[in-house]
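ok here's 2-haloacid dehalogenase:
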Amino acid sequence: MSELSAVKALVFDVFGTVVDWRTSLISDFMWWSRQRGISADWTALVDGWRGMYMASMDEVRRHPERGYVMLDDLHRRSLEKLVEQFAIKGLTEADLDHLTKGWHRLNPWPDSVAGLTRLKSKFVISPLSNGNVALLTNMAKFAGLPWDLIMSAELFEHYKPDPETYLGAAKLLCLKPEEVMMVAAHNGDLAAAQKNGLKTAFVARPTEYGPLQKVDFEATGNWDIVAKDFGGIADRLGC
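and the structure:
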């Protein structure tokens, strides 16, 4: 515990760590499409959508001259390609907007709200997500996430795992990197945070990608905390 006594704030990856994006989106779209009378393989579309996530951010990195593009806009561009690829007919502009904002309506994992509430009693807690500010704010309202503030890649105009996101979060909180702990279900995110001086906590979400999950079943790095859920992190930090 001594090496963690300096920690004053916890920042969280959100998609997959705090919220169950895959199950949420598939359920949302299946219900919505029945009301609209639109037929599509929503499971395949959701998996394909997430599959385009990293590549869409890499495209922003490769072309800094074009300026930063927030995640809602990247999601919309990817969705339009997938609608064409899957030959989904009858979608209006309002439908495309509703589907894109599905990422604003994600349900938390069962332990998330209670665990965050415990951690909030002792620490400043915030997302540190590639989601844009409006997305994360709307999601917090929808899912009941008790953040103290919203920190997004949009504030730094850099997507994780760029150093500017992790160091920018510490700077906004007026803290040293070692006074901030990154919490994630993704070993790669934690590796980048650790490289930039943040403390790290891993919680496994082995069903994040459903049957397509290939990595992150367990901790693969020397993280400061490894726990089965947010309650376990709270236990380790004395909350």
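+1. Residues 9-20+106-237 form a domain with the Rossmann fold fold (CATH 3.40.50.1000).
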